[in-house]
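Thread: Modeling a multi-component assembly for a lab meeting

Hi all, long-time lurker, first post. My supervisor asked me to bring a structural picture of a complex we are working on to next week's group meeting, and I have zero experience with this. I have the sequence lines for every component (704 residues in total). Could someone generate the structure of the whole assembly? Inputs are pasted exactly as I received them:
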Amino acid sequence: MSAEVLVFDILAVIAVIAGTGVVLARNPVHSAISLVVTFVNLAGIYVLLHAEFLAVVQIIVYTGAILVLVLFVIMLVDQDDLPEFHKGKPLQRVFALLLGVMLLGEFAAAVLTRTVVGQPGPWTEENVTLAGGNVQVLGQFMYSGYVLPIQAIAVVLLVGTIAALALARPEDMSRRPRARQTGTISLGHPRGMDGTPLPLPPGVAAARQSPQGEMRDGIMIVNDAESYTDTAAFEYEYATLGPQPGDRKRNITGSEGDE
Amino acid sequence: MVDQPLWITYIVGFIVLNLLLVGMAYMTWAERKVIALMQDRIGPNRTGPFGLLQPIADGIKLLGKEDLIPKFADKRVFVIAPLISFVTAPLAALVIPFGDSITINGQEINLYVTDMSVAVLYMLAVGSVGVYGIILGGYASANRYSLLGALRAAAQVISYEIALGLSIVGVFILAGSLSLVDIVNAQRTSLDLFGSGITIPNWFIFSQPLGFIIFLIAAVAETNRAPFDLPEAETELISGFHTEYSGFRFSFYFLAEYISMIVISLLAATLFLGGFDGPVADGPWWLLLKASIFLFFYIWLRATLPRFRYDQLMGIAWKVLLPLCLVNILLTGLIRLASNNQL
Amino acid sequence: MNELSANHFLLLSSALFIIGMMGVLIRRNVIVIFMSVELMINAVIVAFVGFAWEQDSMIGQTFALFIIAVAAAESIVGLGIIMALSRRVDTVDVAEVSTLRD
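Re: Modeling a multi-component assembly
Sure thing. I ran the full set together rather than chain by chain. Output:
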């Protein structure tokens, strides 16, 4: 029983137990934690197989990025208590279990009675150490013969990113955040007896050079509160009631002048 | 790389771990003292001479507090989450070389715990697993503000991890290896300064200034330190991920942060300042001196700068640091090819 | 079984694959189904690396790296779909999302 087999046994058993934990855990967060344990043990197995770069890439990409995203999604998605654990069909589960055991038997039979086909490659341990280590050999191998798949994967990742952006947009366009607009609400706008703002008399509104404000959803939004309040109230009264004694001498268009 | 029996490796690892823990404890003292002096006050000076027993007093206080677990919290995850942070933090220090091999009683001993061929990526991988301490801590607290604070902190960490990893690709290109021992050995040669006869050591801070700056910024953000500590500072506003933690569980998070600070300072010293390389005598003292410079820089940043808002923080990671990293990689690759006459 | 051989890795790979497959069949939470699919993909990666080790070839490790990259892209899209789905039907139970069937 060599040390390698012992280490492999420990890592493999924990990985399989954690794998069943993924499937059987009731809480999806516990599933994710079990999956992290599985991945870390698999990374240990890759180190045993002299694939150290793959092991650290597995931890950085799979546990450090993909499972973190999975945890994000679990926590951001509203989950109710799913009925699968107290309302599932037991017949379906027994069937799945039988299927799994059968399949495991078939796989084991295929594995244990297999014959090796093809010739071994050149990268034995000594050759790898001579060439500089696992990373150097992998780099040379990938970037000399497999440049095109690397570019293809870059495109795949780009497409995935764009897809994620497209999926994250709110579908209902009315819920899309509008561009922020700021405005000042005029409370000095003349109001009727029930408090609703009154529209300006048509002559007054037409005589303006530039609109000082607009009605939006029943609220008067103006550009400059002071000048609007000053002129609007006056002009409403001026237009409806006519000039009063004591009014400031001002024209209807807002320019100063003598009465 | 010397063949040594496994028990010697364990002893070296034990010593490194103890050094880290003692360093972490006195880092808390140093931070309080230095910030105090920068703010024109004195800092801890009552517990022992110059307040040197302050970390011990803090430890006793935190250990003596009541261990509260919220009623609806997920108990197992609540207990495990700070442990994940605290355990993965010192794991990264296992690959840092503290010096050449020394000889005791005729047995040569390496002054590092292990020399992996993927050492730097291993440190990044261990840092990636540390994110789970944050997320699970926020989840297990059964407090929606803790959860949101945890998600924000986790998003910050994983965003700056990218900049951290990419900023040192230039160092890998120049050194030709991912192993820290190889990187330190590559820096021990001398660089002739433009052929003028002045020699400086081939430290990568001179060859990779942009990478160094990006690494420094990303490292500060990665450890959730000021000025990038909005997820933490919000503890004061009841939205940090360790709100529900008290006593020694909180101290796990708190100390994990200091340990990761020390480890990243050691990494920065090894990658950019030559590690244990020094003008007079190569040895671990130089490495510790250089790491102390970075630690002082950390404390100085905390005492001086206001913190970033969260959207500014994320904008810096994705819109500023990441393109600069890619430019750095491109330039370094071109220069390396040109110097090898392969362009 | 005393010396480490590729059969060990293939048995581990098949065990993980079958566990993942049962997870996809039994569970109703779409996120757990997604994680089971990731488990199946990792089982395949173990098989690749086991063969690469047995045959002293680098192709297995290269392909495993490609699989990890493509799995990352697939997870981006898959998780995006899960979030969009949950926003629309407000549940993560796959048994509820049966409009095409009915």
